[in-house]
């Protein structure tokens, strides 16, 4: 309903003036308003002559009253203006009558009906009233124009008034029951209520028909009293009138007389049947329940008098229809809501998801404890009570996450355990966020609780399975390594004596050929055993790797020189292009091993007259890309996914080219162990390109020149070790014991570098993985720091090295990857002490 507060206040001021001024001011305001509302109507003069006319504002205050209103009521215009229509209220109608009237006009709909009024002298008069809302402009105030005609008493007047009164009384009595009607019992409730209505309404019987989208043919739900069987069939097969009423204007009550219907109408059989059963009139009340279910209430009359009475009560029938439809729609919505809630609950049960709401004003928790094996009595509890259900080891974490989410308006996702009544621990995940209504009426953490016990159990089983698999794989690798060592001893004898026989000039040509076959097969077997030993060492985590700065060009040149003879024998052109002049942080021996394997493969699987091109370039910051491209046979697409799997040779397994299927697997593990990566592209028949990336944190290796002025109290005879691991400390002590006069000073990792301010300047600083990365980065960035002129050696795992920021690597002159070999560690420390790479 549109309102204009300023105008209402203005009118209110008019009516609240002193009694002497009231008529003049209010009358002036009223006349101006009425000019805007009704003066332009061309029949206003005729209407004033034959009808009682008044205009009120949205509060019911009378703004205009015509002369006929004054003469009929006995009140003067001054007495009516500023008052409400209570001034003529007879007290005959119940409050529900006027509540319905205001409900109708507040929706900007027209209301019509009979009203009993009282004159100033105390006598009564009846009026047929029509009230119509109107406004001034698009957003102007709302006014109500009432046009009434006085009804003189006739032969049926008292009976009609009595019916009106009884209808309104029944509506008041049924109001509460209609509001509480339930879907499961709505038909039985309707049957009972309509039975009571039938005692009041001028009708012989009623029939309730149901129409749904599932069944286009209407169905008779019930009738009262029982109607003839042929009428049942007629109502269900005759479609025209009531379906038209239902679908063309579903909000309108309509009345029909069967004998007056056209003979060619679509439901002529129904009309004939109604006439045969002495049904002279029928009123249709379409009742809307939902989009896929509608009812049609049919009131049957057996006399002209009843039909005329129903016609006179059309407005009341419309009120009855509106009340019933509203009730049925509410019932259908509640039913739909209940079904949706049940479906949601079913989905939650299947998905193990429950609601969780924490009221941040009262600290009350509303949740679904029964989904976790707890009593429903705990559905609404204090937060402290809920916290007692949480595992004691998880409470601190839950409180911290909740505090962060609430205070910072962030989403929360936390996993914790709760205990149910069977003392079982249930893992749950809480996910949600704080929601707050702007006016402060609601402040809640809205979340869901997801049962993740099965996921946690699966994760635990996977960890156990992984541990068992790793243990079994390690045992296998240890066994292979042991057996390989055992095989190498007799094989060395075979190869040694075979090579001696090759030197014997007295052997015949056939004997020399046999010896060559023995030596060749033995050499191939020795390479296979060495590869197996390397693979088992890598898989058991025993590969010793020391990362130092080496010029990449030197490593590539040495590698190319080693494989050039093989390229010459196979008539393959081996070329180096775009070499990188800087240094890379690698294990020199391991990188050469990987490059030899890749270049050997590029030569072996090439064609006579083919090419192998080795090139280097900067790929991304702090990394160098080494590529080995060949013009060989390429790799079949079905073999590419398993190329780095041990002992997998794919289509080459049946070829005459020697190979074990281990080399690429070893190469991949070596490169990844140094923090690098390896990949390839290949086109069958066109060749392949293998590329690997290694770290190059700086173009030149860090140089170290100790300056006595930086630390005046230095003896330059100590090694500073920053580590929290007892085993690492003991290993460093034992490794450096051979260096006379070299003292190991031990600190905790977090004390780096502040502890160096209080001791002599060390010759070398050794750091393990517990040293904060931010400290390393800031030290590396400060080129003028005295620390930058002291050699640093890192002791890290392969994963820790990979996680280390490239900007932090420049501080290290060498990195030893765990597991640490004392000889390798001693070599790395010696190399940084002497400045000669190991």
State the gist of this model.
With 838 residues, the chain is an alpha+beta fold.
Overview of the structural elements:
The chain is of the alpha+beta class and 838 residues long. The chain has 25 helices and 28 strands. The strands form five sheets. The protein has a seven-stranded mixed sheet. Strands 13-12-11-16-15-14 form a six-stranded antiparallel sheet, with helices on both faces. A hairpin with a 5-residue loop joins strand 14 and strand 15. The N terminus is likely disordered.
Which features does this protein show?
alpha+beta; 28 strands; disordered N terminus
Q: What's the structural blueprint in terms of helices and strands?
A:
Elements: H1 5-15, H2 19-37, H3 44-50, E1 52-57, E2 62-65, H4 67-73, H5 77-80, H6 95-106, E3 111-118, E4 124-135, E5 142-151, H7 157-179, H8 186-200, E6 205-212, E7 219-224, H9 229-237, H10 240-248, E8 254-256, H11 268-276, E9 281-290, E10 293-301, H12 304-312, H13 314-351, E11 353-359, E12 364-367, E13 380-382, H14 383-389, H15 395-408, E14 412-419, E15 425-436, E16 443-451, H16 453-503, H17 509-539, E17 545-551, H18 552-569, E18 573-577, E19 583-586, H19 588-604, E20 611-618, E21 623-630, H20 663-673, E22 677-683, E23 687-695, E24 718-722, H21 726-735, E25 743-747, E26 764-768, H22 773-781, E27 792-796, H23 798-803, H24 806-809, E28 814-817, H25 822-834
Parallel strand pairs: 18-20, 24-25, 24-26, 26-27, 27-28
Antiparallel strand pairs: 1-2, 1-5, 3-4, 4-5, 6-7, 6-10, 8-9, 9-10, 11-12, 11-16, 12-13, 14-15, 15-16, 17-19, 17-28, 20-21, 21-23, 22-23
